Structures are given as structure tokens and as C-alpha cells.
Predict the 3D structure of the following.
Amino acid sequence: MTKAPPVIAIDGPSGSGKGTIARRVASTLGWHLLDSGALYRLLALAATRRGISLDNAAALADLAENLDVRFAADGDGEGLIWLDGKPVRDELRTEEAGRGASTVAGLQPVRTALLALQRSFCKPPGLVADGRDMGTHVFPEAGLKVFLTASAEERARRRHKQLNDKGIDVSLAALSRDIEDRDRRDSERSVAPLRPAGDARILDSSGQSIEAVTNTVLDWARELLAEDL
Ligand code: DC
């Protein structure tokens, strides 16, 4: 039997820096990248556009199985994403899309419907997958599982800067509230709650530079996945 491509799973709460770190690690290793949060955001956006209610589990699962999405790398950027043939990147990053994603992500039929799509990203030479349940549900066999955290304060500050840089104006207090609400929903929900896999390595990125965190993950990858690199 041929060996499955290696996987690095990076999970954690919103604003912990998962996306940035996953992108850096994937680009250093020359591996594929899965931003699973983008799939939940895309689904919420596609549903809103079609007038499907965000609590209609059956219709959402059906939509999830037939999502017309395309991803492409754009060098050091956040990547390009098309929904129904049209670029959507900035719309996906709004807090509204994040809230919608968090709502649809609480529905088990939706999570099941998105499993095959997520696993289809696992191709040679390897995959770096970021999300909430990469190490616990989607890629339980991942050779390296990282649970990336940061204090709620620091996460709100980072998100604030990210949005400001894009010209999106939101208050830091409102963002903090949003992050805390979303953390609570994501970790208290009954299906696939946000929690580290039993065999995950916990990495607190508070006060650490992007380079330092990326290097820690790469060191762990060299230690645990030496034969795949
Ligand atoms: O990482 P993000 O902020 O783009 O994720 C948006 C929402 O999607 C987040 O609130 C929780 C949900 N999500 C999830 O439940 N499972 C994943 N693997 C990724 C995201």
C-alpha cells in the first residue's frame, strides 16, 4: 500500500495566528495548504447569497457538498479564492462572515459534508491544514499536531491591526467581545468542539514573533516528520 502524504495539523482559536503560521510553514516546505475556516466562511457566504437560512442543516449540507470553490496561492499573500467563479477574498474576512461560519460550523451535517472536500487537499508532497478540528477529526493521523494559542487580548489586537490594514474600521472593544463570543461558541458546541488533540503540542504565541513561532513548528516537523521532508 502506498503511504498517505504527511500532514501537519495546526488548530487553535481565532486570532492565534494559525493562518499566517500555516502559510509560512507550507511555503517553506513546498507543501499544500488547507485553510479550513475559509470553507466554513465560504459556505456561510454562499448560503446567504442563495437565501438559505444559516440554521437549515439539510440545505447547508447539500450546498457544502456542491460548493464551487477554487483556491490558488499568491506568493506571500493570503491566497486567492473563487466562489461560483468569482473572487471573494475580502468578503470572507469580515466579522459577519466569521460569525456566519461559526454558526454553520456547529451543525454536524455540515461538518460531515465538508470532510471529503477537506481531505481532498491532502496530496504529495504533504499538507499543512489549519482550523479547529484538523488534528482531532479531519486528519487524526497527522504526523505533527500543533495547538496554537495566544491570550484573548493579543488575539483581538492582531485582528484589529489585520482589519485596519485592509481599511476595515472596527472598534477593539467590539472585536474583543466578538472573539470571546466566538471562542465560547466554538469550544462549547457539542459537535467537534475546539480542543487540542491528545497528542497535540501546545504552542502559546503571545509575545512571540511570526518567525519564532514558524521556526518552532518547522523544528517539530523536522523532529517528527524527518523522513517526509
Ligand atoms: O479560522 P476562521 O476564523 O476562519 O474560522 C471561522 C469559523 O469557522 C470559526 O468560528 C469556527 C469555524 N471553523 C470550524 O468550526 N472548524 C474548522 N476546522 C475551521 C473553522
About this structure: The beta strands are 7-11, 32-35, 69-72, 80-83, 86-87, 127-131, 144-149, 201-204.
